Amino acid sequence: MSRHRIGFWYRFAAVLAKPPLVVLFKRDWRGMEHIPADGGFITAVNHNSYLDPLSYAHYQYNTGRVPRFLAKAGLFKGSFVGTVLRGTGQIPVYRETTDAANAFRAAVDAINKGECVAFYPEGTLTRDPEMWPMEGKTGAARVALLTRAPVIPVAQWGANEAMPPYAKEKKLRLFPRKTLKVLAGPPVDLSAYYDKEPTAEVLREATERIMAAITELLAELRGEPAPAEPYNHRKAVAAARRKTDETGNKAGEDTK
């Protein structure tokens, strides 16, 4: 695979991050052949640990096509963090705009310039109790349909065992030594949506295809079948509240 210009700041970050990752973790990396050698593209990645951006970035850095992550635009203003974000070419997201498509204009520009933009379509750490991907948000699909760039699904597993999400204590569990697994798959076929108006329904269908591809890869990594339907946190919370209300009402009736 051809090497692309990575730049000083990305190499500097790699010098700091790679040695401890290599020493502290084992690696099971597969599917690098699916990372495009040239041209702009999107990666869509599942998110199950505060540590997994490092795991995924390490994987893709070694392909020669570094990922440009999305981050709130405000983080780019001043400070050392802002300097590093700008230097490594991360992508500001302008969430204050009322135009949903315009919110991702920097991501579209980066892809059109031949860069890789990495999306976490879930938008946050998974809330699924079994750590499967949740329903995705439509940002990745929106940018994919605007640019017609390849969307490479990526699944990862193992970082969550070293740093479980939502644990009471955010500390690393390094022993026994964990394996960071990353698997990239072939591009998701979204061609059926290219000539359609990007309505909410079209974006939702495209997003479901992306999330299904990620989930299929994760099932391969985990060696177990995925759930039939992706987890929807809002529906789960609403169902839990209904159950609590019904239990409370039943208890009240029993005391009469």
Automatic annotation (TrEMBL):
Q: Which SUPFAM superfamilies match?
A: Glycerol-3-phosphate (1)-acyltransferase
GO molecular function list: acyltransferase activity
- Enumerate the CDD domains for this protein: LPLAT_AGPAT-like (cd07989)
Per its UniProt record, what Pfam families does this chain match? Acyltransferase
Query: Bias regions of kind Basic and acidic residues — which residues?
Result: 242-256
* Key words, A-Z: Acyltransferase, Transferase
User: What transmembrane ranges does the database entry give?
Assistant: none
From the UniProt entry, list the residue stretches annotated as the region Disordered: 225-256
Task: Describe the location of the Phospholipid/glycerol acyltransferase domain by residue ranges.
Answer: 41-159
Q: What is this protein called?
A: Lysophospholipid acyltransferase family protein
Give the organism the record lists. Answer: Streptomyces orinoci (Streptoverticillium orinoci)
